[in-house]
From TrEMBL:
The modification N6-(pyridoxal phosphate)lysine is found at residue 269. Its cofactor is pyridoxal 5'-phosphate. SUPFAM superfamilies: PLP-dependent transferases. GO terms for molecular function: adenosylmethionine-8-amino-7-oxononanoate transaminase activity; dethiobiotin synthase activity; pyridoxal phosphate binding. The gene is bioA. This is Adenosylmethionine-8-amino-7-oxononanoate aminotransferase. One of its GO terms (biological process) is biotin biosynthetic process. It comes from Gemmatirosa kalamazoonensis. It catalyses: (8S)-8-amino-7-oxononanoate + S-adenosyl-L-methionine = S-adenosyl-4-methylsulfanyl-2-oxobutanoate + (7R,8S)-7,8-diammoniononanoate.
């Protein structure tokens, strides 16, 4: 299709995510992608410095994953997963149990990050119900983001994202954002355990990096302290590794950096290498066992039409194989080093503050008259970078770089250079 026709039909019929259609920039018409690059229908090449919303792991159109998808599609494309099983799902669940923090042996598959979180929250609530001591209170962090469905929104921070729905969301106990100092988070958790500990059904965190809430980074010791409190009180800890999973923070999972095994762990985004939607909620045997009963009401009544889609499972298996190769570990370390150099150069700029890094995720704030997600400086930087062939999508005044693992040092240096040139522009 010609670019003009494509964009005209898009403008007429398509409703894009997180997009104010009035005044929105024309969407980038992408024809194909390879490695770290997007190629547009009008002949431009764009560096994908945000891994297409944090999903593209190794690179775009990785041949090993594409081949696995093609082969699986011709063998078994889909089958009901209640009452049936198949090798791609069984192998994937076995592999996830093998690579996950020790003790997470049971895997429930769903469609995306939000559903992986919904499932974890429902499992935690029903766990208490099944034990005959119902509990309803979930504790979650300030500035958290756990997805866009109602349960996931409820445990997420109340923000511009949720404002229209706030009255419909269930209440949670809020713990201070640990990126602003872990001691306050732990004190608040201790106080909560003291006053409402017997109501508390679960604690949910994004381990080490609060993603959509502003790439706020926090420390392993605080994560360990939260996990210890949960363990001591036998309250399930839910680790939402939807963004941090599959090597983003260095090791396969952020929990590994702290030596923590949560009771429930949510993964999605990078799980298929960024090819297909798939979510997974991992649980301990102890939690799973409370669902075993002769009373059928203790069943987890949850499932999606496409649960354990064989093609998505095959993509995930192919991606995991690549992820475990020594070359991928080396690539992640190389990107971390390149980030460190790029951030060090930017940190000296008077308009830059809060430079920070966890594994392959780098972030910083840009001084601007407005703060937060609606700050215009982010959109201005996005437009500036695009004109120079780099895809960035800052969270308001927070800019981050989160590239696919194949991104070269030169390409990443170019992305940092584009940011530096934006900052040096005369301000309007
Ligand atoms: C993106 C994200 C989600 C939601 O995942 P979707 O696939 O967009 O539904 C949940 N939790 C975290 C930490 C995320 O970054």
């Amino acid at each position: 299709m010609e670019t003009d026709a494509l964009l005209a039909l898009d403008a007429r019929h398509v409703w894009h995510p997180y997009t104010q259609h009035r005044g929105a920039p024309t969407p980038i018409p992408v024809a194909r992608a390879e490695g770290a690059y997007l190629y547009t229908t009008d002949g431009r090449r764009i560096l994908d410095a945000i891994s297409s919303w944090w999903v593209t792991l190794h690179g775009h159109a990785t041949p090993e994953i594409a081949d696995a998808i093609g082969q699986q599609a011709r063998t078994l494309e889909q089958v009901i997963f209640a009452g049936c099983t198949h090798e791609p799902a069984v192998r994937l669940c076995t592999e996830l149990a093998r690579v996950a923090p020790a003790g997470l042996r049971r895997v429930f598959l769903s469609d995306d990050g939000s559903t992986a979180v919904e499932v974890a929250v429902k499992m935690a609530l029903q766990y208490w119900e099944n034990r005959g001591e119902p509990r309803r209170l979930v504790a979650a962090l300030e500035n958290a983001y756990h997805g866009d469905t109602f349960g996931a929104m409820s445990v997420s921070a109340r923000s511009v994202y949720t404002a229209s729905f706030d009255p419909m969301l269930f209440d949670v106990a809020r713990l201070p954002d640990p990126s602003e100092g872990g001691a306050a988070t732990i004190d608040a958790l201790d106080a909560l355990l003291g006053t409402r500990g017997r109501e508390l059904a679960a604690v949910i965190v994004e381990p080490l990096v609060l993603g959509a809430g502003g790439m706020r980074m926090w420390d392993e010791a605080t994560l360990r302290a939260i996990a210890e409190r949960c363990r001591a009180s036998a309250i399930p800890l839910i680790a939402d590794e939807v963004m941090t999973g599959f090597g983003r923070t260095g090791p396969l999972f952020a929990c590994e950096r702290a030596g923590v095994t949560p009771d429930l762990m949510c993964v999605s985004k990078g799980i298929t290498g960024g090819f297909l939607p798939l979510g997974a909620t991992l649980a301990t045997d102890a939690l799973f066992d409370t669902f075993l009963s002769d009373d059928r009401r203790r069943t987890l009544f949850h499932g999606h039409s496409y649960t354990a889609n064989p093609i998505a499972c095959a993509a995930a298996l192919a991606s995991l194989a690549l992820l475990e190769a020594p070359a991928c570990t080396a690539a992640r370390a190389r990107i971390e080093a390149a980030h460190r150099r790029g951030l060090a150069a930017l940190a000296a700029h008077p308009r830059v503050s809060g430079t920070r890094l966890t594994g392959t995720i780098a972030a910083f704030e840009i001084a601007s008259p407005e703060r937060g997600y609606l700050a215009g400086v982010g959109r201005a930087l996005g437009a500036f970078a695009l004109a120079d062939g780099v895809l960035l999508r800052p969270l308001g005044d927070t800019c981050y770089l989160l590239p696919p693992y194949c991104t070269s040092d030169d390409d990443l240096a170019h992305a940092y250079d584009v940011v530096a040139r934006f900052l040096d522009q005369p301000r309007p």
